[in-house]
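Two proteins, back to back. First:
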Amino acid sequence: MSESMMAQTRREGVLAAHSVDEYVISVPDLEEARKFYTTFGLNVVNEGEGLALYAFDNPHRYARLVQGERKRLLWIAFGIYADDLEAFTQHIDALGVERVQSPDPMHPEGLWIKSSDGFPVHIKPAPKTSPSQLPPREFAPESNGTQRAPSSSAAPEVKPLYMSHLLIFTKSVSNSLKFYGELLGLRVSDSAGPSDTEKVIAFLHSPHGSDHHLLAFLESEDYGFHHSSWTVPSIDHVGLGMRQMSQAGYDFGWGVGRHVLGSNYFRYTRDPWGSFIEYSFDIDFVPHTMDWQARHHPPEDSLYVWGPDVAEGFGTNHEALQG
């Protein structure tokens, strides 16, 4: 990510997290995870007893994977500005939020609390890694009498630029919106469901500037990890990413298509444990200088503008099925 993309934009007088700093999940096979995420185009690094996920030419660690009996969301870390730590400490104590002991002996710093779904949440001083300006947008040059598309054999390898957002399963979308809104200062971008009081999916952004959502929720019988989304600079990269994964045997997914909420072009690929990973291009951006007008949408009119039918099992929480 360029320096301008990582600018430390800030809405003055607002106490809020600025980024999803990283997520941590367990998987039953680290070598299969290494193969999957490497094929996707990430820089997979051995760290400690597990793996760490980086985008190439980007120093930030976005995720860690550790060995476990099954795939499971372990915790999420949110980045805050360092001079907000004391204010966050007082804010959390005033709300009576339960503190928990750090499950990460390498990172006991900051604040560790229990989420509304029961898993740990880490609030830590960290540089802002959510984008601070519109995402990069590359388009093919205008026709000038020569071939513009590369030969198939010369197509570039897709390497995402940075992580855009997470979508997680939650036992209650309404409770999660209240928890992350009151506690972390995140703001609703959009939601969908049968009624305004019955939401099945919702999207949150940071008032310090971020993509349309840096965190989203999908209702389920338990919490869990649905997908991480990674920004690429063109619709071609979305399609090439689909080919890249399919040629390696990871051919089950959804897309290419275009979302309604967020507006981004997408391709999801299912990982070996039932979750997904997404190539995303041209998502809506919410600058720190404006208020996004949140709206509630009927489900049938809010998921995608065009694309193939939704993949079978796309909304299945496999972590809940495994008990």
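And the second protein:
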Amino acid sequence: RAVTVLVIACPHALGLAVPLVLVNATAMSAKNGILVRNREAFERAKSIKTIAFDKTGTLTTGHFGVQRIYTDSIDEIKALGIAASLESLSEHPLGQSIVEEASHRKLQLSKASDFKAVPGQGVEGVVNDRHYRVGRPEWVEELKLQFPPALKKGLQEREARGESAIVLMDDQQVLALFGLADQVRPSARAAVVKLQKMGVQVVMITGDAEAVAKAVAGDLQIDRYYARVLPQDKAALIHRLKAEKPTAFVGDGINDAPALSEADLGLAIGAGTNVAIESADLILVKSDPLDASYALKLAKATYMKMAQNLFWAGGYNVVAIPLAAGVGYSFGVLLTPAIGAILMAVSTVVVSINAMLLRRTRLSD
């Protein structure tokens, strides 16, 4: 009986219950583009109820793009082609976004002549034997040109959304208006929907103006957002959110590092700064906010597997050790050392197989 008890009490299953699950979870994380820098924080991810995203570079690409084109007395494609022809000779980032939009639509640009950059206003030149200007809306007033009511209304709409605007003019009037804004990452909307379905509150934090924050939050259907947050105030804001619920923070910049350290779980965008990456617990290699939802789902699945393994390993010892000691003798149940060895091996196999089943978790569902 003593030998059987010693054989069955061998703590193989109990010792493997957690490490095997963590090894598989780490492997799955890496396979899905999530690097685990702090395994302890990864285990805490199961209890996250709020996740805060920095806007620029995380939910958005940090790169301006054309959101809307308004025209008057000219075709939209023609207006875009003329503006891109002039801006192709400029180095201004807003101008380059117009060139990229024309390239995306596969437009053939015309050769511009007499090109001139006007500091603080825009650019001008001749395209198809006609003089045009592309620049700030304020330039229109200075030149005392006509601003059609439809385009002026479009300007008000873009400004209400906190977007930048560029106008195309000839020598008489404004012909077109381009609304430019920081582009939302394609997967950001899916990430917000998935997190909300998981019961996690999504919060957006940005240093941008209220109008910009409201527009992006509305686009992503985020109910709670904070605008005009100074870099040094982000960590304090995360501290307040932590006091309400366990909170994760996703960021990419140098000024996000204190907030990443303050959060219960810090997730850094792979394309972010080295300081942010060093301050984070998890790194989203593909710079995809959707991976944040995968990380939380995997963390919950990992915790469940660890609990199952510990329950099995502990329950096995609670039942098997008394049987090995002979409590079932009066009922005709008597375990030999050989049977005890088989049971000990089976418990280890069960724990190992259950840990491997973690790999069947479909994070994208």
